[in-house]
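To: structure subgroup
Subject: Chain for Friday's discussion

All,

I'm putting the inputs and outputs inline so they're searchable in the archive.
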Amino acid sequence: MLKVSDNRKVLAEFVGSCILVIASVGSYTKFTVVMENTSNMALLGNAIAVAFILAALIEMLGPISSAHFNPIVTMISYIDKTISKGLAIKYIIVQFMGGIVGVIITHLMFHDYLGYILRIATRERNGFIYFGEFIASFILLLCILFLVKVKSDKTSLMIGLLVGGNIMATSSTNFANPQVTLARVFTDAPSGIRPFDAIVFILMQIVAALLAYALYKFMFKGEKENES
């Protein structure tokens, strides 16, 4: 990472979180509302857009802030003692702020078609979709932890591909991020999620992240001792 001030790290997290939500909400809105494609085509377009943009964001902002853009990633980084408590709190605050700004920007871009700036979502994502969100979040956090541990030089590409694949493979379409989940409460486009389901999604994300971290620690238990 570059040696930059905490303020610049925080700004990078805000910008990355904002653009990530634009990619997530904007691509689905364009494919469904503007281009009037089927949900199948919209899902594919969303997966490609998010994968490409996320990979670019990680490559661009990773050297500055480690490119979290995700409160559960920041939470696990704090638990793993790779980020201070104060900086972690700042990261999480601006991640949520960036997500809300991202959805506002998206609605402004497509205002001719949507006709609103913010609107509470009504789309239900319940039942076993909750379990799908747990699986998506578990896989994402496990992937991030392992890639960072082995110091992969392809982290941005691998995470982008994983997220795109998870969007297509999981029943929840891979929210796997509390700030993205909250932001999508405020869009009534097809990418939205009603508030109650968003709360459950966020709980699933937190539990999945903690279990992924537990597995990660178990997998690398005693590594330092073995290396000495």
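Points worth raising on Friday:
Residues 6-217 form a domain with the Glycerol uptake facilitator protein fold (CATH 1.20.1080.10).
The chain has a mean pLDDT of 95.

D.
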